[in-house]
Amino acid sequence: MFTTRQTPTAQGFSTSTLVVAGPWFQGHQFDTLPAVVVGPFGGPELADEATTVLVWYFTLGAPQPGASVQAMFPHELTRLDDTLTTMHSDTFRDIARSLRRGRFAYDDGDALRAAVRQAWRERTGLADADPAARHTLHRN
Description:
The protein is an alpha+beta fold.
């Protein structure tokens, strides 16, 4: 019996999804690194039509278009079983600090900044980790 494998789509990777993927530099793809989805390439207004997603390779430093923020095809991404709320606290702290120092093209980082603020509230007990609220937060 054969099973059908679903091809991943950009719509399947919502903002703040943790992934691993190989960043590109001068036409060469490097080994995989952890990253967080910034959102659909082209911004939220093109979410339904997007074929790629922007990811931030947070271990490469503060967000910078091209260097640590890149557009990736969904088949290049592997989803992690972790969230901003449940990930290691040192890594989360590094993400929150680096996010403030970096920049995104246009307003691409706004939804990610909101997701990091919400995760901080949940981690510190200032907000409930409500699954319904989290689902709303992660929708593109």
